[in-house]
Write a structure and sequence with these properties.
The chain has 2 helices and no strands. By secondary structure, the protein is mainly alpha-helical. Helix 1 runs antiparallel to helix 2.
Length: 89
């Protein structure tokens, strides 16, 4: 096989097209994963900052304040839904 045969060229071209398409799909998936990880990281940083802020408030007040966990969960759920929506785009 010299590789100059039109059938061989078409076959190689087809394989290259398939590989290129797969590479593009993998790159897109990789980019979505990176975006999702960045969003998760940002949320974790927000949570840690909120925890630090609450500890400072508790220290200033000298008491432990009760936090309405349902409200906090609702806010986090909204953010989580936003991440899912963004990742699906």
């Amino acid at each position: 096989m010299s590789g100059d045969d039109p059938k061989d060229m078409d076959n190689m071209s087809g394989k290259l097209s398939v590989l290129t398409e797969r590479s593009e799909e993998n790159l897109t998936e990789y980019q979505r994963t990176i975006q999702s990880l960045r969003q998760q990281h940002a949320l974790l940083q927000e949570i840690e900052e909120e925890k630090r802020r609450l500890k400072e408030v508790e220290k200033k007040n000298g008491t432990v304040e009760e936090v309405n966990e349902e409200d906090a969960d609702d806010d986090h759920q909204k953010k989580d839904n936003h991440i899912v929506d963004d990742a699906a785009k």
